[in-house]
Amino acid sequence: MAFITANWNPLGEAFYRKTELYEMCWNLRDGLRDCLVAAAPYGGPIALLREPHRRSPSSRPQLEIYSASGVSITSFPWKSGPVVQLGWTVSDELLCIQEDGSVLIYDVFGSFKRHFSMGQEVVQSQVLEAKVFHSPYGTGVAIVTGSSRFTLATNIDDLKLRRLPEVPGLRGRPSCWVVLTQDRQTKVLLSTGPELYILDNTSCTAVCPPGFGPQAGSIVHMSVSFSYKYLALFTDTGHVWTGSSHLQDKLSEVDTKKSTPPKQMVWCRRPKSQQPSVVLMWDRLLMVAGVCNDTIQFPMEDQCVLVGELDGVRIISSTNQELLQEVPLVCQDIFKIASMAPGALLLEAHREYEKSSQKADEYLREIKEQSMLGEAVRQCVEAAGHEYDTNTQKSLLRAASFGKCFLTDFSPDPFVSTCRELRVLNAVRESDVGLPLTYTQFKQMTLQVLIDRLVYRQFYPLAIEICRYLKIPDYQGVSRVLKHWASCKVQQKDLSDEAIARAVCVKVGDSPGVSYSHIAAKAYECGRTELAIKLLDFEARSGEQVPLLLKMKRSQLALSKAVESGDTDLVYTVVTYLKNEMNRGDFFMTLRNQPVALSLYRQFCKLQEQETLKDLYNQDDDHQELANYYVTASYREKRLDSRLSLLQSAVDEYNKAKNEFSAKATEDEMRLLRFQRKLDDEKGAGLLGLSLQATMEALLALGLHKQAEQLYRDFRVPDKRYWWLKLKSLAEKEEWEELEKFSKSKKSPIGYLAFVEVCMKCNNKYEAKKYVSKVTPEQKVKAHLAISDLEGAADVAIEHKNESEMAAVLSRCSASDRSLIDRLNRARASVAKK
Amino acid sequence: MSERCPVPLLWPRMAHSARRDSPELPDFSLLKRLARDQLVYLLEQLPGKKDLFIEADLMSPLDRIANVSTLKEHEVDKLYKVEYKPITSTSDQLCFLIRPRIKTVKWICDVANADKATGKFRRYKIIFTPQKFYACEAVLEEQGIFGDVTTDEWAFYLLPLDDDIISLELPEFFRDNFLAGDQRWVRTAGSALHLLHSLYGPFSKVYGIGRCSKMAYESWREQVAEGEQRTRQAEIGRVFLIDRDVDFVTPLCSQVVYEGLVDDIFRIKCGCVEFGPDVTSDKSVKVMLNSQDKVFNEIRNEHFSNVFGFLSQKARNLQTAYDKRRGMDIKQMKTFVSEELKGLKQEHRLLSLHIGASESIMKKKTKQDFQELLKTEHSLLEGFEIRECISFIEEHINRQVSMIQSLRLLCLLSITENGLMPKDYRSLKAQYLQSYGVDHLLTFANLRHLGLLVEQQPGETLTVMESKVGKLVNDKTAGKLTDAFSSLARKSNFRALSRRLNLVPKSGEEYDLRVPRDMAYIFSGAYVPLSCKLIEQVLERDGWTGLEEVTKLLNGNEFAVTGSNGADSKAKNDAQRIILVMFLGGCTFSEISALRFLGREKGYKFIVVATAITNSSRLLESLLDNHV
């Protein structure tokens, strides 16, 4: 513990430390010599291409991909053209930029994804140098060609090539160059030796860094910081000029006393630090040059590669990997020798406490007197985050927890979350996973991205563990991991469809948010249609199955799934699709097996395509519906003969459907229509389209009794109906004589009470009375009451000795009918007695 | 009754003796607010002045949500009703608020294409409510104006008509779903349920019967699974879903409870009725009929025979209240005028309206023929004197009393008798066609399709055959066979159901309509509505156990599902007694009255959600296919 500052080196006001991250697991025979190396930031994977310039088919260069800890992920012989540059995208895909300007993209497992070209002209002029860079827009590629022209692609996922203007006087490659992203623009800064130019979309401008005297010499190396904020220039006189990348301010100029240009120069800066520095590497020397004009020098034994990170520099050699960083302030406060910072005191107090020494109390008192205990705990928690060594983390966290006991209103959240996050970080830092993330990087990267990376690298169990441990909601956590796992699983060619489907189902189960259709789509993409169908069976939401099934040309299945889903829009989508895909016969046959789809389509046809509707019924030999269709159609027809011919078709179809009743009714209608037409022509009666009843009514109203009679006979109108009709019609026209004649024509099938009532309705009591005598005995009381003849009603009721009839009469009596009431009451009493 | 009414109410209130522990109903005005806010948002999506075209049957529902001034505030210039004619609007922005119907969309296409032809440039926006259908968009595409219009959805699923009635205002649901077999609205019903669930749920138990109910339930479950879960205090505990075709008898009966009668005679539209001069003896007035109307609120559930007595008592009370003025000093008079007079005046106005309405109803309904009509209905329900009923119906048709009424009686006859004898079927149909035209062939085809008016199968009836088959083979095959039979023709088993559920009380017993014994009071004590009886039974048994025979007669499709949070269903007792009943295909006011009665008896509160308020006329009119 005491030696925690042993590897600290002062530089100006800051300290720098080198922490070992890994003993590399790889076993490189020739070290990193003769290799193209690319290591992704944020502890990403490392790609190596050995002897990239070997071209003979017998001995191809080998492309190897390792995790950051040197665990081999894949390795394969490079069979394409010569590679100029390797690089990683923000989503950990490997870019291999070839001499001919084509860029090949591989995933971390070495499987080829796609390729693109940096332009046709490059094939001729060849790529001299290339750089891969990251910006808010994604990953970009910049090249300089043999004809000294620069071409940029700012985002390889949305490829737009930009050829930058010519640089005056440039022949061959520039002596050095970098890509800058400034003010939402991507530019190239290059040096041709003495001159420095900024190259943007439209122009090439010569620039001069402030405070950069002519004596400084010509620029032979340059480097831009992780955030594109700072720039470092190395001149052939051994000076390092540092300043802002806008070239407006100068930070410092350090004389390295080295005349050879460094092999690599990388910015090393902690976010928000006022003390940035540049790390330069020569064959046997590593130098940290600070803005304070001071330097730290480390001897080096082995060939190394520097990887710039957000908050430091990783140094990868063939045997180990170290992190060089400025010691975070809070760690300085705590661990600086003789520090009196509250955190330092708390750590000390806890240490004494563990030794059961009363000094613990003294230290605590000291902190508490300054009322800095909260601050002390906060410092310890924060420092723990920045420490790589688990023992140091532990002692800091224990001290924090100890200090917390003496505080009453201290939020435990930062402590708890730091503990959790450190546990996750320590797990991913493990050599077999190999993601050496610092706490700062982790925070910048976010947990979501970390889980994505783990998933991408196929560390599914670990990812799930982390999700569960951090209690991430299933949607964003476990389910997402399972989804990726399943998508990956379906690509395993060595397993049978059956086995994969089972494995997927067992693992995924019904985790919320995992869509089987998504997995099935993946399987289909890999050409495993059968597997896709099997997987779709697990999909609970049938709506999700349909689009994929259509894509796989399983239209029948798609239709039945759509129907199952109960979503008519979906059914309709499939129906439309089928309509366009299939010939009409097959289409109708398919619909026939799916009543829901069929009725939906029918509804649509009723409004949009009447003709199709007919075909549909024809296809099904649905004569009944076909007949109904013709009847409907006949009403839209104005002309009588077309109307009749439609009705005739309806009759034929009804006959085929063995619906004699309807056939007969339709035939009657045709007969009626012809009859109406005839009369309309002859008498202008305006009958066409009326119902039989209405026609007869109209005829009677017009006094055409004979014709009405004819209809009555021809259409076998029930007697009752005809009598009612004639009765009403005659009464309305007040043809009382005619009515009386009619009443005597034969015995009324509707009785004579109707006559009484109808006459009364027409306010003719005199006529009404004529019929009262003819009314059947049962209705007589009613008849008398109808003409308001209470006496008569009472007589009949008493004669009938019918109590309810008497009651009916009574209810109509008013107070003035005293004697009648008495009579009725007496009769009632005598009936009741019996 | 006004709170300040100084005279104690004398009218016996047996029917209203609610249990004290009845839970409070949830506040459904939230639904209106949500709908209004969304509509405003959608209108603002089309900035600037615009003319708004509103589908005719959306006018009234819209009026309940946002009045004209609200629309004007959001830059709606002129309002038009969709009339399927060329338009006269001169605005350069047109907004259409419509139901997702192909006919309307086609009309909009015509409007847009006409503009194109004359080189007029306008912006068009279609707001479909409650949702858009793919078929509508397909029409836009076919007519080549898909790119010219923007479309949106106004998720206005539910319109609260009263404290306990919510309507989807989708009358076409019935025909589309049950007749045409078009299930496009099922998802709408599911979404409506989902909305209620997310605002007033979580539901702890869902019961249902009917194919459509089952599908709506599944659609809702799916939507719940897709969305995120929230745990909150439930306001509605239980839900009952029922298809209209489970019980056709009830909506086909004449309504005799005040609210139902008013609907049958004057047609209540969207909670509002227009009383003509025969009621007001002046010009027509539109009256909102809901619990805000204190007079109406007390008579709406009463059998009509009680209404007059109540109203006259009420009038007397009112007079007493007015009379109080006499002998008041100035100060008292001042308080009276400022505090009571307005309430009394209001009550006075309402009272005179309802008295007018009752008189008008009396005129129509106390006549001999109405009594005979009721008698026939009751005979049909009881299954007595069927021949007399048939002659009554025949005369009804011959005398052309009413096209719809005759049809209603025919259907009632067919359902209660499990189909008509072939001879009767033919002769009644033939006479009907003579009366009202041969185009009703199509109407009859529709009624047959729905099982509302069918011919008895010659020879043995299905039931007999089924039971024979059932004995011969194992249950599973029997089930399949039953399915096959029921698909042949949906047969009615009213008689058997009526026996099993005791729907028709023994005749001859006195039934005091002022002191209702059971839900039968809504049909003068002659019939307990099947739909409500099922609800009562299922709630009592907490499921369908013991009702197996009944569900078999109803063609199955029953379900009872306990929600995921079954654990706390015991704890929140209040919510458990709030029961949402959803009628898919419409519900009548009589059924609502019956449920209110049941609620009072058992200490429940029912909330009725219906795809539309229906009655016999609306039900049958939707099945007409005559093209007069």
Automatic annotation (TrEMBL), chain A:
Q: Which UniProt keywords apply?
A: Endosome, Lysosome, Membrane, Protein transport, Transport
GO cellular component terms given for this protein = CORVET complex; HOPS complex; late endosome membrane; lysosomal membrane
Question: Record keywords: Membrane included?
Answer: yes
Q: Which GO terms describe its biological process?
A: endosomal transport; intracellular protein transport; vacuole fusion, non-autophagic
Judging by the UniProt lineage, the source's domain of life is Eukaryota
Give the way it sits in the membrane: Peripheral membrane protein
**Keyword Protein transport (UniProt):** yes
Domain Vps16 N-terminal positions: 5-416
Which Pfam family is an annotated match for this chain, by its short name? Vps16_C
Which stretches make up the Vps16 C-terminal domain?
514-827
The principal localisation class reads membrane
Q: Which InterPro entries match?
A: VPS16 (IPR016534), Vps16_C (IPR006925), Vps16_C_sf (IPR038132), Vps16_N (IPR006926)
Locations listed in the record:
Late endosome membrane; Lysosome membrane
> What does this chain do?
Plays a role in vesicle-mediated protein trafficking to lysosomal compartments including the endocytic membrane transport and autophagic pathways. Believed to act as a core component of the putative HOPS and CORVET endosomal tethering complexes.
The record's note on quaternary structure and interaction partners says: Core component of at least two putative endosomal tethering complexes, the homotypic fusion and vacuole protein sorting (HOPS) complex and the class C core vacuole/endosome tethering (CORVET) complex. Their common core is composed of the class C Vps proteins VPS11, VPS16, VPS18 and VPS33A, which in HOPS further associates with VPS39 and VPS41 and in CORVET with VPS8 and TGFBRAP1. Interacts with RAB5C. Interacts with STX17, MON1B. Associates with adapter protein complex 3 (AP-3) and clathrin:AP-3 complexes.
Question: Which family is this sequence assigned to?
Answer: Belongs to the VPS16 family.
Report what the protein is called: Vacuolar protein sorting-associated protein 16 homolog
> Which source organism does the UniProt entry give?
Dicentrarchus labrax (European seabass)
Q: What is the lineage of its organism?
A: Eukaryota, Metazoa, Chordata, Craniata, Vertebrata
TrEMBL record, chain B:
Q: Which InterPro entries match?
A: Sec-1-like_dom1, Sec-1-like_dom3a, Sec1-like, Sec1-like_dom2, Sec1-like_sf, VPS33_dom3b
Its localization reads: Late endosome membrane; Lysosome membrane
Q: What is the topology of this protein in the membrane according to its UniProt annotation?
A: Peripheral membrane protein
The alphabetized list of GO BP terms reads: protein transport; vesicle-mediated transport
The record's listing under Pfam families reads: Sec1
Protein name listed in UniProt:
VPS33B late endosome and lysosome associated
Gene symbol here is vps33b
Q: What family, per the record?
A: Belongs to the STXBP/unc-18/SEC1 family.
